[in-house]
User: What shape does this take?
Amino acid sequence: MDASGNVTIAPADIDNGSGDNCGTVTLSAALTTFNCANVGDNTVALTVTDENGGIKTCNATVTVEDNIAPTVVCQHTTVLLDAFGNATITADDIDNGSADNCAIATRVLSKTDFTCADAGTNNVTLTVTDVNGNSESCSAIVTIEDIENPAAVCQNITVQLDASGNATITAAQIDNGSYDNCGIPSLALDITSFDCTKLGTNTVTLTVTDGNGNSHSCAAIVTVKDDVNPVTITATPTQTSIDCYGGDATVTIAVTGGVGTLTYTFDGVPNNSGIFNNIVAGTYNWSVTNSLGCGNASGTFVVQQAGDLSATVALTDVTCSSGSDGTITVTNSSGGSGNYEYSNNGGISWQSSNIFSGLIPGNV
Assistant: This one.
């Protein structure tokens, strides 16, 4: 059988030496043209006619064979994975016009099912078999693509600032079950660190990316609080007592709350202890700040001292120049602090009484 599915024989092809005693004979066959429907054994009658009109017939078996393989034509194709990470092709997707001189019985692919593991290029083989058992194959490239975006699922969270005034979160804390058709995606956050300047609600974006570069995002609210380590600074300045007018004091600024490293400033002088020495009476500005610039405290403080000493002095002269009945009485004493003591000899000796008696004439 030829490539068109046909074959023709002549009567001589099935004659095996027919003859006649009276000369030549004429041969004719009942069937000389065959097609694919005749593949196999066919009985054909051969008629022999002599010059005198004598006729004789015999039968021959004509076996028609199809030994021509199909013509197989492949084409490359691109297939998208579905939402479950699967893709399926058929022979029709690869066959690009395969043909046979008779008829094609089957078209079989070496691989029809694909998953995420097959993303990229894959070689497949198409085998075409005709109705007479002849077969031929060709190869094609099946490109598997994943264009399905992951599903990004977010959740809101609340975080507390630590003792340094900072808080850090991870993408896993915001993720609420994000998924992808091709397995676990990677997670990334646009903001992961917070300080006391971010107290309250903050919007963050979670981006979910799969292994094939597809991505999707969702937004979440991160509420930053400072309940455990309060940011707000409560500061109270105190002073040591200045017992004598014109003396100095030590001022201490006591703090509760605050985060990070605190800086104390009194009258424009900063330190990290909050203790300031040799401060004379007066009104001063003070502040307590942290390096983050939030939760600060400030105010004014009056350093107080004892008032200047003052008193009223009354003298009683002696009655006679030689007498010793003079007195000095000190009243209305004010200023200073503590109990008053009195001296009439320039501080050489002191007494608790405000009256000096038995005095003789002279300077006191």
About this structure: Residues 310-359 form one domain. The mean pLDDT is 92. The chain has three helices and 27 strands.
